[in-house]
Amino acid sequence: MKLLVPVKRVIDYNVKVRVKSDQSGVDLANVKMSMNPFDEIAVEEAVRMKEAGTAQEIVVVSIGPEKAQDQIRQALAMGADRGLLVKTEAETEPLGVATLLKAIVEEEKPDLVIMGKQAIDDDCNQTGQMLAALLGWPQGTFASKIEKKDGEIHVTREIDGGLQTVSLKLPAVVTTDLRLNEPRYASLPNIMKAKKKPLDVKDPSDYGVDLKPRLEVLKVTEPPKREGGVKVETVAELVDKLKNEAGVL
Amino acid sequence: MAILVVADHHNEALSDATHKTVTAAQQIGGDIDILVAGKDCRPVAEAAAKIAGVRKVLYADDARYEHRLAEPLAALIVSLADDYDAILKAATTTGKNVMPRAAALLDVMQVSDIIAVEAPDTFVRPIYAGNALQTVKSTDKKKVVTVRATAFKAAEENGSASIEDVQPADDPGLSSFVKEELTKSERPELTAAKIVISGGRALGSYENFEKLIFPIADKLGAAVGASRAAVDAGYVPNDYQVGQTGKVVAPELYIAVGISGAIQHLAGMKDSKVIVAINKDEEAPIFQVADYGLVADLFKALPELNEALG
Ligand SMILES: Cc1cc2nc3c(=O)[nH]c(=O)nc-3n(C[C@H](O)[C@H](O)[C@H](O)COP(=O)(O)OP(=O)(O)OC[C@H]3O[C@@H](n4cnc5c(N)ncnc54)[C@H](O)[C@@H]3O)c2cc1C
């Protein structure tokens, strides 16, 4: 199989974001940026499929700023074969990204697209489902296990009540959940090797895709602050406070 | 304005998340219809017909909807979309799975996980694990919206809407159901419980959840939750995870035991009314959001708590 793995450059998950005082967004100046953690899981899964002989080629694509090349290089260092950056400095939305990915899929013709279930910046959880819709492909979202079986792909999905397994015709789109795998750290020799792997840079206009947002962001604000309360000394005091002060027991 | 609310259910019972989504729809304003798609689930349609302020229930009964697969369900929603200006569904795993697919087929940019309705086209939604709130105005003609159920009160049940059968839409036949392994529990559902007690990595094993957390949960009629670390370690099933990328809860009382309070965890519980933290590290960030903090070893504190609850 040929695999396509889209990755997004986002704020590192350890960083606590600050809202800008003019309410135009969050402050990303001098903040550590990383590959979206769910996308790392997607890259790892693709590399494991290649190592197991289920997949032969892995193409990694990012739609984002020039600097997203760092995240593509990281994926290459983890074991992907080739990278593609579609460069845009503008904020993108899932529908625009899915439309652009569709054009890339039509060019690359992968058998399977593996991507993160959600980006930890906009928390939308949409792009994979939208890409599947636009391509007319099946979707296996929130995957905790992916298996190739009888020419189809079995995806075990993390759902509200537990786990659901579906079988998808190929080609298909799969989105990753946390339990799918634990991504590797790239070794130094692999990081060096990744520098020589091919990485194409293109422009959204090369695909004739309009990335104009459909949602207008009116403002970005701080959520109401929750004040820390009191420390209690003993379990008895805790129970007393919950009963008589908070009235929740 | 006409609004379609897509019901959440498992063929047997209607989920409370539907009532809360109806409230969000009422805030948008307009005629509200509910779509119940499933297999042999007329009682669910009947329950939906009782929700206050609902004009009619559209009932699609067919095997292809039994397991809530995204491809046929999105096709059904799209087949009904012409009659509606807005389509809403709770941001459950089914909502998250199906709605973006329907949105893309309708060429609409979905507004995910809203916590407030500012105007019929303007919504507030958390971003960055709830560390910022974004107010967005949709410029699409049709709105496709998923709703964070905990942010809305449940609509009442004093209505008597009519139930209308709708034809199933063409099934694209791209996927098939293999199996479901559902967590069995007598306890209340996590997102609907009035009290939640969650355990973290510090619990160390399933046996400790069973010995220390479950008895307290049962005394309090509480649901049991967990941090990602506890789920990853296999102490409890995946659907116990509370947080940015798990379930969002907002109970009357949330008790966090042996959980450090990472932003991803806080994103799922910081709107609880009262938060209790039990942690042996007095510097643990969870104390910054806790109304009542107990610095203690959980292996000592939990048996005491169990005892104190009688
Ligand atoms: C993409 C992404 C998504 C994520 N999504 C989520 C999510 O949805 N939900 C979530 O919870 N996390 C999520 N996380 C993980 C999150 O960042 C933290 O790693 C996780 O919440 C930590 O779990 P914990 O608090 O149980 O473990 P730890 O951080 O290890 O904390 C354990 C705590 O137990 C205390 N302790 C130890 N022993 C005892 C004892 N005997 N008695 C009392 N206290 C004790 C320690 O002091 C410590 O504070 C996500 C991470 C990423 C990268």
Walk me through the structure.
The complex is a heterodimer of chains A (249) and B (310). The N and C termini of chain A lie far apart (57 Å). Chain A has one domain: Rossmann fold (3-Layer(aba) Sandwich), CATH 3.40.50. In chain A, strands 9-8-7-10-6-1-4-5-11 form a 9-stranded mixed beta sheet, with helices on both faces. Chain A has helices spanning 37-51, 69-78, 94-108, 127-135, 188-194, 235-244; strands spanning 2-6, 9-11, 33-35, 57-64, 82-87, 112-116, 139-149, 152-159, 162-168, 172-176, 199-202, 215-221, 230-232. In chain A, helix 2 packs across helix 5 and helix 3 crosses helix 4 (127-135). Helices cover 27% and strands 30% of the residues of chain A. Chain B is 26% helix and 28% strand. Chain B has helices at 16-28, 42-49, 70-80, 93-105, 206-220, 228-232, 263-266, 298-308; strands spanning 2-6, 31-38, 54-61, 86-90, 111-114, 116-119, 122-127, 132-138, 143-147, 162-165, 175-182, 195-199, 223-226, 253-257, 274-279, 292-295. In chain B, the strands form 3 sheets. Chain B has a 7-stranded parallel beta sheet, with helices on both faces. A 5-stranded parallel beta sheet of chain B has the order 13-12-14-15-16. The longest helix of chain B has 15 residues, at 206-220. The chains are: A alpha/beta (249), B alpha/beta (310). Strand 9 of chain A pairs antiparallel with strand 11 of chain B, so a sheet runs across the interface.
Describe the SSE topology.
The complex is a heterodimer of chains A (249) and B (310).
Chain A: E1 2-6, E2 9-11, E3 33-35, H1 37-51, E4 57-64, H2 69-78, E5 82-87, H3 94-108, E6 112-116, H4 127-135, E7 139-149, E8 152-159, E9 162-168, E10 172-176, H5 188-194, E11 199-202, E12 215-221, E13 230-232, H6 235-244
Parallel strand pairs in A: 1-4, 1-6, 4-5, 5-11, 6-10, 7-10
Antiparallel strand pairs in A: 2-3, 7-8, 8-9
Chain B: E1 2-6, H1 16-28, E2 31-38, H2 42-49, E3 54-61, H3 70-80, E4 86-90, H4 93-105, E5 111-114, E6 116-119, E7 122-127, E8 132-138, E9 143-147, E10 162-165, E11 175-182, E12 195-199, H5 206-220, E13 223-226, H6 228-232, E14 253-257, H7 263-266, E15 274-279, E16 292-295, H8 298-308
Parallel strand pairs in B: 1-2, 1-4, 2-3, 3-10, 4-9, 5-9, 12-13, 12-14, 14-15, 15-16
Antiparallel strand pairs in B: 6-7, 7-8
Helix pairs in contact in B: 3-4, 5-8
The structure holds flavin-adenine dinucleotide.
Flavin-adenine dinucleotide sits between chains B (200-202, 227-230, 241-246, 258-260, 262, 264-265, 268, 279-281, 284, 297-299) and A (13, 37, 120).
